[in-house]
């Protein structure tokens, strides 16, 4: 979401938010922010009938800006659209003042919301959404290398993204490698992909993982190429490029889990968002697996009961629940998240593409680490 003129938004004062929604989630957020009697202004079209000089009538669509005092709003889950209904505040040649009209707020089209009083929750929600980093920015890059291929993963924003996949066979087939060094053409392709996806202003660490000696060979190649090309961004951050050994023939997701189990890797990202997410998931999983679950619970009923007692220290919730297409379910878990935050707890939302998403789904998609033991929660139906 783009939020223009942020200085116009002041808590407990009148103000106008100029907004461009960019994702379906932005429209859901706006559905929860826009209230009755707010004024929403947007450009729309209306069908009008025009009379010519010979008194014949023709129908045409004209563009105009409507300023509606909101009477109701409706979020359509299937199309992820937000419809606003209200009374027109201004008269113009096509729309009488005080008449009822409806328009749809669309992605990538600007509009304005004016409130008599902006509350703290609404201002914080808008600013937080506007300040989210893009999907190309992450905390950790993992380069998984095997004999014939490499995969580059970006971890951040609750998401694990496969940015690139390089096959050595496609680079060397039909010709004999003439360059010095093992897999040189292959290494060059991996190097080029890393340059494309890694921004050291954002990324905390780059991990090169493989079985055997490939990881060390590629790290040397990477640093030599950076020196040859005078790429200071790599040379100045070489301490943040580390290598990790892997077991042979691991599946992709297992490779990532093995990398994230390395103490050196975790120390390098311990204060980042992805590091916090991984550490919390592991703490919860260890409690559940070791039957030491008095300070851990999972399942909707247990988690809701724990929050009623203000016992939740950290809430872990899947994106599928928190941003469900079912409005009732989405409101339910949105209220849970808000309640946890208001009581001083932390909330971690895990995308379905997160490397640890499967573990959270095994715990019903919602779980919590508690401030104090609640042994009776074990008896509740999850």
TrEMBL record:
Identify the cofactor(s): a divalent metal cation
Keywords, comma-separated and alphabetical: Cytoplasm, Metal-binding
Q: Where in the cell is it found?
A: Cytoplasm
Which InterPro entries does the annotation name?
A: eFR1_2_sf, eRF1_2, eRF1_3, eRF1_Pelota-like_N, Pelota/DOM34_N, Pelota_N, Ribosomal_eL30-like_sf, TF_pelota
Alphabetically, the GO molecular function entries are:
metal ion binding
Its main localization is: cytoplasm
Q: Which GO terms describe its cellular component?
A: cytoplasm
Q: Which domain of life is it from?
A: Eukaryota
* Gene Ontology terms describing biological process: nonfunctional rRNA decay; nuclear-transcribed mRNA catabolic process, no-go decay; nuclear-transcribed mRNA catabolic process, non-stop decay; ribosome disassembly; RNA surveillance
- The chain positions of domain eRF1/Pelota-like N-terminal read 1-131
User: Mind telling me what this protein is named?
Assistant: Protein pelota homolog
